[in-house]
Amino acid sequence: MNRTVADQNPVAERYLTALADALTPMNAPEKREVVDEIRAHLQDAKAAGKPLDEILTRLGSAESLAKAYLVESYLNPKPSGAGWISRTFGLFGLLVFGSLPTLLITSLLAPLGIAFLIAGPVLFTSGICGFFDVSLAPVVQSDLEPWQQIILGPMMGLVGAACLWVLYRYLKWILKLVRQMASGR
Amino acid sequence: MEAGEWTTQLRRGVLEFCILQILHQQPSYGYEIVTRLESLGPLAAGENTVYPILRRLKADRVVESFLQDSPSGPPRQYYRLSAEGRKKLSVLSKEWDAVVQAVGRCVGKGADR
């Protein structure tokens, strides 16, 4: 194992201990990473021929260095995300309780929406053609009067569009839920 | 405001951008980044500024770190740009160009008077 400046010099060792103490709000792995980085910095600067007191002066006091780290962390806090276990359970729960409603809603709204969205304009066109005694049979076969087709056509189209819009919003909401669960936010 | 204080304020804003530029060229470690900035004169920033920024960039997933053996002692923590970091640098570069052009026009107008 390489012996570092801090291992060999009590002043450097005291500095790193003080830094670790001042970094108390950080969790242990983060704190260790920061201390290791500053330890490597001391080593690199010493290897570059700089005297230890100059290196430490440039770093500032252990407390002020720790404060700078904490201020940066405070400026950009990590999201308090859930752990992988709760994320997995969350996704599993969503799968269990969300699958059936999603299947029902999708299998109802998707065909209904598409069928009405196509049938509406066709019926409307058929109604217009009916006024001019032009038949669209056998493409369109309807017992309705042309004026009824002209009124019903756009209404069906609107219902179809509404079905697809509701389905779109629902799927978007489900995807958002899945993303939130997966990221643990 | 003193000139020195003005430079400090200005540097604070561009330091992150410069660190990302350095890491865009090649992966680097803390001491090397500090000395690179030092060599750039007005952009020289203290270690107690650069290291916390690196830490934040890492927490932000803008940079990634990895350990690599060092001939002078314990393994060094190297930093490199992540995919997100490259995107951010691209955005910041455009912003920077726009700011430089705007300041250039502003200074030019001032000189024309």
Structural features, described:
The complex is a heterodimer of chains A (185) and B (113). Chain A has helices spanning 5-8, 10-22, 28-47, 52-59, 62-75, 84-131, 146-183. Chain A is mainly α and 185 residues long. In chain B, α1 (3-25) crosses α4 and α2 (30-38) crosses α3. Chain B is globular and about 55 Å long. In chain B, 66% of the residues lie in helices and 17% in strands. Chain B has helices at 3-25, 30-38, 47-59, 83-112; strands at 28-29, 63-70, 73-81. Chain B has a single domain, classed as Orthogonal Bundle (Arc Repressor Mutant, subunit A), CATH 1.10.10. A 3-stranded antiparallel sheet of chain B has the order 1-3-2. Classes of the chains: A mainly alpha (185), B alpha+beta (113). Chains A and B meet through α3 and α5 of A and α2, α3 and β3 of B.
Topology:
The complex is a heterodimer of chains A (185) and B (113).
Chain A lengths: L4 H4 L1 H13 L5 H20 L4 H8 L2 H14 L8 H48 L14 H38 L2
Helix pairs in contact in A: 2-3, 2-5, 6-7
Chain B lengths: L2 H23 L2 E2 H9 L8 H13 L3 E8 L2 E9 L1 H30 L1
Antiparallel strand pairs in B: 1-3, 2-3
Key attributes of the depicted protein:
heterodimer, A: mainly alpha, 78% helix, B: 113 residues, alpha+beta, Arc Repressor Mutant, subunit A
Biggest interface, which chains? A-B, 31 and 24 residues
Full CATH superfamily name of chain B = Winged helix-like DNA-binding domain superfamily/Winged helix DNA-binding domain
How do the strands of the widest beta sheet of chain B line up side by side?
1-3-2
Mean pLDDT of chain A: 85
Task: Bin the helical content of chain A.
Answer: over 70%
What is the CATH top level name of chain B? Mainly Alpha
SSE pattern of chain B: HEHHEEH
Helix-strand topology string of chain A? HHHHHHH
Q: Return Rg of chain A in Å.
A: 35 Å
Structural class of chain B: alpha+beta
Global geometry of chain A: rod-shaped
In short:
Chain A has helices at residues 5-8, 10-22, 28-47, 52-59, 62-75, 84-131, 146-183. With 185 residues, chain A is an all-alpha fold.
